[in-house]
Amino acid sequence: MVNLALFSAALAVGALASPAKPKCDNIGVRRNWNSLNGDEKASFLGAIQCMMQKPSLSPNGVQQASRFEDFVWTHQYPGYAIHWLPWHRWFVKAYHAELQECGWEGEMPYWAWEQDWQDLSASNIWNADPEIGFGTYGNFDYNNVYNSTTITDGAFANHQIQFPFPHMLTRNLPMTANYPWTGPGPYCQRGYNPENMKNLSSIATYKDFSVALESPDPIHNPNPFPGPHGAIHLALWGDMRTDGTNNSSPNDPLFYMHHSNVDRIWAS
Ligand SMILES: [Cu+2]
Q: In angstroms, rounded to a whole number, what is the distance separating the alpha carbons of residues 61 and 65?
């Protein structure tokens, strides 16, 4: 929780101080998930599980099952005045602070999905190990359309979600990641392939960059290719994609790994 009084006081002190350049002595450096060792991965995923066990801070206490779902709630109702990139930077930072409360001692890691562009389903992020893995990506089964994409392995196997409606954590990567939606190459891949990542880095203004990076879903996007941010949400489908009326994609712990990378691309 941000202490507003303290924040205002800090601002006032800042305003009175000499105009010396701000100096950060303690800059954390985020790391690629692939560079963490097994103990670090287990500790990080354990901190997320801890958040999922912690009671909600919600004053009404009825909608959210846990501290983890408090973040889903916050993302569900951001209002329409937010600035997309900085708001999400703050959001990932606040989440990281909660993970620290749950014993995580490292910086926020990231999933560098653009390095997995050739075949997202072959990414190292998919790991079924209950200690060190986020689980795999679901696999749509036409013989079992109900709950067919529930994540049944990894640290969040059969994770029960309450907010915004009761269901189990789902992903459905192979079907949506490979969906053509004309070509060349699958629609999602055109969002995070090297060509689009390079185009993105040459955009001159913040506003154009933000729009090109974010990209709404294809229904609202006039381009024949998505932005990489939207493409990853779409490719993972399930909770990451949500359903148009909900903004509840933070129900998948990969949301934060994704947005940590979005942040990194913005910073670079
Ligand atoms: Cu997002």
A: 8
Q: 215 alpha carbon to ligand 1 midpoint, in Å?
A: 10
CA–CA distances in Å: residue 171 to residues 80, 156, 248: 27, 12, 13
Q: Where are the domains of the chain?
A: 52-267
pLDDT in tens, 106-160: 999 999 999 999 999 999 999 999 999 999 998 766 665 555 689 999 999 999 9
* pTM score: 0.87
**243 alpha carbon to ligand 1 midpoint, in Å?**
13
Instruction: Give the chain's residues under pLDDT 70.
Output: 1-19, 60-62, 79-81, 140-148, 216-222, 243-244
DSSP code string of the chain: ---HHHHHHHHHHHHHS--PPP--S------BGGGS-HHHHHHHHHHHHHHHHSPP--SS-SS-SSHHHHHHHHHH---S---HHHHHHHHHHHHHHHHHHTT--SPPPB--GGGGTT-GGG-TT-B--TTT--B------TT--TTTTB--SSTTTT-EE-SSS-EE-B--HHHHHT--SSSSS-HHHHHHSHHHHHHHHT--SHHHHHHHHH---TTT--SSS--HHHHHHHHH-HHHH--SS---GGGSTHHHHHHHHHHHHHH-
Return the CATH class of domain 52-267: mainly alpha
* Ligand 1 center from residue 140 Cα (angstroms): 23
CA distances from 167 to 2, 81, 96, 159, 160 (A): 31, 30, 25, 9, 6
Q: For residue 84, how far is its CA from the centre of ligand 1 (angstroms)?
A: 9
